[in-house]
């Protein structure tokens, strides 16, 4: 780790606006498990949007000497499957995907309108998510269940967005998701990450395993 002398802030996600969760001293050796893309940063080793995931969070690759300007580790979340193991969810990933698909509708449902996080809880068998908004849900998920910035979301994974109260939807595999409201208020239809970004202007944050505040 090489800075101008000051310690480098470790963040909860690959963004300069992500919450500070610690720091690493100049000259320290760090081990990172994977790399992802996020905000572009100019640091000791130039300009890059690559971030390294260390044990406590994310640091900009521009301050880490790796011997390369590109990636030198696997992509964060790559090849990982959805798993509800140890989370005490009433439904597993496959059952949640089946629920989402079977409840797709273009008709208005009051229980779906402006309640994306609630719908995700229903898919996993909970009566409520336990979080006040999707963004609050994202912020509460422990780091070991979170894959910030990763767009390869396995079926059953929860994809989160920022902006206001945020947004969340469930992956059904193949780059497709089931989301509330995107094709009309109170609807539940298939969409993509790009469509949420383009239609609503909400920044994509990443995906998580099905962890809910309701039972934690």
Automatic annotation (TrEMBL):
Matching InterPro entries: Papain-like_cys_pep_sf
Source organism superkingdom: Bacteria
Record-linked SUPFAM superfamilies: Cysteine proteinases
Record's protein name: SH3 domain-containing protein
Organism expressing this protein natively: Rugosimonospora acidiphila
Lineage, top ranks: Bacteria, Bacillati, Actinomycetota, Actinomycetes, Micromonosporales
